[in-house]
User: What shape does this take?
Amino acid sequence: MSLVTLLPFIVLIGAMFLMTRSAKKKQQAAAQMRNQMQPGTGVRTIGGMYATVKELHDDAVLLEVAPGVHAMYAKNAIGAVLDDDEYNRIVHGDDAARIDEPIVPDDASSLTGTTEPDDAKIDLGKKPEADAADEAGVKDADADVTDTEPKDGKADGEK
Assistant: This one.
Protein backbone atom coordinates (compact mmCIF):
# COMPACT_ATOMS: atom_id res chain seq x y z
CA MET A 1 0.00 0.00 0.00
CA SER A 2 1.14 3.45 -0.73
CA LEU A 3 1.14 6.48 1.52
CA VAL A 4 -1.56 8.14 -0.62
CA THR A 5 -4.09 5.41 0.18
CA LEU A 6 -3.35 5.58 3.91
CA LEU A 7 -3.53 9.39 4.08
CA PRO A 8 -7.38 9.65 4.42
CA PHE A 9 -7.34 7.12 7.26
CA ILE A 10 -4.57 8.99 9.06
CA VAL A 11 -6.45 12.31 8.73
CA LEU A 12 -9.68 10.69 10.00
CA ILE A 13 -7.95 9.20 13.05
CA GLY A 14 -6.25 12.54 13.78
CA ALA A 15 -9.58 14.43 13.61
CA MET A 16 -11.23 11.92 15.96
CA PHE A 17 -8.34 12.28 18.41
CA LEU A 18 -8.64 16.09 18.41
CA MET A 19 -12.41 15.98 18.92
CA THR A 20 -12.27 13.59 21.84
CA ARG A 21 -9.44 15.58 23.42
CA SER A 22 -11.44 18.85 23.37
CA ALA A 23 -14.54 17.09 24.73
CA LYS A 24 -12.45 15.61 27.54
CA LYS A 25 -11.10 19.06 28.45
CA LYS A 26 -14.62 20.46 28.62
CA GLN A 27 -15.78 17.62 30.87
CA GLN A 28 -12.80 18.11 33.18
CA ALA A 29 -13.45 21.87 33.42
CA ALA A 30 -17.13 21.25 34.25
CA ALA A 31 -16.21 18.69 36.92
CA GLN A 32 -13.68 21.08 38.45
CA MET A 33 -16.29 23.86 38.49
CA ARG A 34 -18.79 21.59 40.26
CA ASN A 35 -16.17 20.58 42.80
CA GLN A 36 -15.57 24.25 43.68
CA MET A 37 -19.15 24.63 44.93
CA GLN A 38 -19.55 25.45 48.59
CA PRO A 39 -22.63 26.09 50.72
CA GLY A 40 -23.85 29.62 50.09
CA THR A 41 -22.68 29.80 46.47
CA GLY A 42 -25.09 30.87 43.75
CA VAL A 43 -25.58 28.43 40.88
CA ARG A 44 -27.53 28.09 37.64
CA THR A 45 -28.92 24.68 36.74
CA ILE A 46 -28.86 23.30 33.21
CA GLY A 47 -32.59 24.09 33.13
CA GLY A 48 -31.89 27.77 33.78
CA MET A 49 -33.02 27.97 37.41
CA TYR A 50 -30.97 30.11 39.80
CA ALA A 51 -30.50 28.84 43.35
CA THR A 52 -28.22 28.89 46.36
CA VAL A 53 -26.28 25.80 47.46
CA LYS A 54 -27.27 24.66 50.96
CA GLU A 55 -25.64 21.22 51.28
CA LEU A 56 -23.21 19.15 49.22
CA HIS A 57 -23.30 15.34 48.98
CA ASP A 58 -21.30 12.91 46.85
CA ASP A 59 -23.48 13.00 43.74
CA ALA A 60 -26.23 15.41 44.81
CA VAL A 61 -26.67 19.01 45.90
CA LEU A 62 -29.39 20.53 48.08
CA LEU A 63 -30.42 23.88 46.56
CA GLU A 64 -32.56 26.64 48.01
CA VAL A 65 -34.61 27.85 45.04
CA ALA A 66 -36.66 30.35 47.08
CA PRO A 67 -36.62 31.33 50.76
CA GLY A 68 -37.62 28.18 52.62
CA VAL A 69 -37.98 26.06 49.44
CA HIS A 70 -35.34 23.35 49.04
CA ALA A 71 -34.78 20.91 46.18
CA MET A 72 -32.32 18.06 45.68
CA TYR A 73 -30.42 18.06 42.36
CA ALA A 74 -27.73 15.87 40.87
CA LYS A 75 -24.33 17.53 40.65
CA ASN A 76 -24.38 17.03 36.89
CA ALA A 77 -27.47 19.25 36.71
CA ILE A 78 -25.44 22.30 37.78
CA GLY A 79 -24.68 24.30 34.65
CA ALA A 80 -22.63 27.13 36.15
CA VAL A 81 -21.28 28.27 39.49
CA LEU A 82 -21.76 32.04 39.71
CA ASP A 83 -19.75 34.56 41.68
CA ASP A 84 -21.63 36.58 44.29
CA ASP A 85 -21.87 39.81 42.29
CA GLU A 86 -23.31 38.12 39.22
CA TYR A 87 -25.74 36.02 41.27
CA ASN A 88 -27.05 39.08 43.15
CA ARG A 89 -27.37 41.05 39.90
CA ILE A 90 -29.42 38.32 38.24
CA VAL A 91 -31.57 37.13 41.15
CA HIS A 92 -32.06 40.27 43.24
CA GLY A 93 -31.70 42.89 40.51
CA ASP A 94 -28.75 44.60 42.18
CA ASP A 95 -27.22 46.78 39.48
CA ALA A 96 -24.16 48.11 41.30
CA ALA A 97 -22.10 47.89 38.13
CA ARG A 98 -24.61 49.95 36.15
CA ILE A 99 -24.53 52.96 38.48
CA ASP A 100 -21.18 54.17 37.15
CA GLU A 101 -22.03 53.58 33.49
CA PRO A 102 -23.21 56.53 31.40
CA ILE A 103 -26.91 56.70 30.65
CA VAL A 104 -27.77 56.29 27.00
CA PRO A 105 -30.40 58.81 25.81
CA ASP A 106 -33.64 57.63 24.21
CA ASP A 107 -33.04 59.61 21.03
CA ALA A 108 -30.05 59.92 18.72
CA SER A 109 -29.39 63.60 19.48
CA SER A 110 -26.16 62.80 21.30
CA LEU A 111 -24.88 60.90 18.26
CA THR A 112 -25.46 63.71 15.76
CA GLY A 113 -23.56 66.37 17.67
CA THR A 114 -26.26 69.00 17.16
CA THR A 115 -28.02 70.42 20.14
CA GLU A 116 -31.31 71.81 18.90
CA PRO A 117 -34.03 72.70 21.38
CA ASP A 118 -37.04 70.40 21.49
CA ASP A 119 -39.42 73.09 20.20
CA ALA A 120 -37.49 73.41 16.92
CA LYS A 121 -38.39 69.93 15.68
CA ILE A 122 -39.19 69.42 12.03
CA ASP A 123 -42.83 68.75 11.17
CA LEU A 124 -42.93 65.60 9.07
CA GLY A 125 -46.71 65.44 8.77
CA LYS A 126 -48.75 66.04 5.64
CA LYS A 127 -49.76 69.52 4.67
CA PRO A 128 -53.45 70.32 4.69
CA GLU A 129 -55.03 69.33 1.35
CA ALA A 130 -56.03 72.85 0.42
CA ASP A 131 -52.48 74.17 0.86
CA ALA A 132 -50.98 71.31 -1.11
CA ALA A 133 -53.47 71.75 -3.95
CA ASP A 134 -52.85 75.50 -4.11
CA GLU A 135 -49.10 74.95 -4.33
CA ALA A 136 -49.51 72.37 -7.08
CA GLY A 137 -51.99 74.52 -9.00
CA VAL A 138 -54.64 71.83 -8.87
CA LYS A 139 -58.26 72.55 -8.05
CA ASP A 140 -59.52 70.66 -5.00
CA ALA A 141 -62.03 67.92 -5.78
CA ASP A 142 -64.03 68.66 -2.61
CA ALA A 143 -64.31 72.38 -3.30
CA ASP A 144 -67.61 73.89 -4.41
CA VAL A 145 -67.97 73.54 -8.17
CA THR A 146 -70.04 76.26 -9.79
CA ASP A 147 -69.91 74.71 -13.27
CA THR A 148 -72.78 72.28 -13.80
CA GLU A 149 -71.45 71.22 -17.18
CA PRO A 150 -69.14 68.18 -17.13
CA LYS A 151 -65.55 68.67 -18.24
CA ASP A 152 -65.81 66.43 -21.28
CA GLY A 153 -69.06 68.01 -22.45
CA LYS A 154 -71.26 65.01 -21.80
CA ALA A 155 -74.13 64.75 -19.37
CA ASP A 156 -74.91 61.83 -17.10
CA GLY A 157 -75.89 58.68 -18.98
CA GLU A 158 -74.31 59.75 -22.27
CA LYS A 159 -71.32 57.96 -23.71
Remarks:
- The chain has a mean pLDDT of 77.
- DSSP finds four helices and five strands in the chain.
- The first strand starts at residue 42 and ends at 45.
